[in-house]
Amino acid sequence: MIEFFDYQHLLCATDGFSAASLIGKGSHGSVYKAILKDNTVVAVKKPLQTNDYSKLENEARVLWSLRQTPLVVNFLGTSLDSANNKLLVMEFMPNGSLHDLLLAPVTWPKRLQIITQIARAVEFLHQANPLVIHRDIKAENILFDSNWNLKLADFGLAVSPSELRSYAGQPAGTIGYLDPCYTTPSKLSTKSDVFSFGVVVLEVISGRKAMDISKSPASIVEWARPLIERRNFDGIYDGRIALPEYLAGRMRKAVELAGRCVCVEQGKRPSMGEILEAMEMETSCCCIERFKFFQNRVWSGLAVVVGMRRRRRRLKMEANLKWCSSRQGAPNC
User: Fold this and answer.
1) Which of 154, 178, 282, 323 has the fewest CB neighbours in a 10 Å radius?
2) Pair 72, 166 in one domain
3) What span, in angstroms and rounded, lies between the C-alpha atoms of 240 and 249?
4) Which residues form the signal peptide (predicted)?
5) Which domain holds residue 259?
């Protein structure tokens, strides 16, 4: 149920939208942490320019069209400021973004889980009625709630194909994640989101940013493509943390999948449905492989223990025989 929030209450809850309450800032708006009178914590989004509320209007409309899901940040309601301009009130996501998380090493099983969750969220948009193309899938727009559940955020650029006929704007998105085939509005498709998803997967696996001007090439896609073509997967894996043996095959397939997603030709990219099916299969296989890996280690350890015990018994018997041989004729021998 979408709620209308009193602007004066939000003004108090954000300490007058102070810098101390600011928790995020993007190209379309600023996000503030608000503590309501009942101690509920929410996020309030307002545009950067007071004369441009189109992105917020669009975000509210798209979120309103989507059924409630744990895959997308919850849209709680709206408010109107003193000039009758709209603000959005959203679910507060206390554990930050994927971009923040990747600043430190992340365990490999967690990375595989993250990739699968992102695929599930994007597939949800592509299966919605009407279908939604996000257009700005990136690490900063993937957030974590208090239980570390992953959710897609920032729908300011999102559109549905039915709107494209009347849409006359320029292609939009974030450099580094933007589909190179998306040069005109008519070239936009779900495969544009697939490209952006592939970039995020490469970020998750490598720990490298989508665009990093301190590196050459700066683009993660241009850096990863030749490595994938040469099947140099070790050159892509995040070197800050060792890749477990039981996960090597799974991560290799994830890299290959990312390579298909960032293919220059849109037609050769997989759909999000295909991607999700592949990732869920890899995640389940990962659990099986992990069980087998540790089961083999347990059996190997038991075999070593049994072998050592047998060897000790044999040595003891040999020692007893030698002792008896040295005391032939004694009553106890």
Assistant:
1) 323
2) no
3) 19
4) none
5) 98-287
DSSP codes of every residue in 54-119: HHHHHHHHHHHHSPP-TTB--EEEEEE-TTS-EEEEEE--TT-BHHHHTTS---HHHHHHHHHHHH
pLDDT per residue as tens digits for the range 144-167: 999 999 999 999 999 987 776 656
Binding residue numbers: 46
Query: Residues forming the annotated binding site for ATP?
Result: 46
Q: One of 15, 38, 136, 145 is an active-site residue; which one?
A: 136
Flag whether 222 is in a domain: yes
Q: What DSSP character marks residue 171?
A: P
pLDDT tens-digit profile of 171-209? 889 999 999 999 888 889 999 999 999 999 999 999 999
The two tokens of residue 263 are 């293919």
Whether 330 is in a domain gets the answer: no
136 annotated active-site: yes
Domain assignment present for residue 103? The answer is yes
Residues 244 and 119 in one domain: yes
> Does residue 329 form part of some domain?
no
**163 Cβ neighbours under 8 A, 6+ residues apart:** none
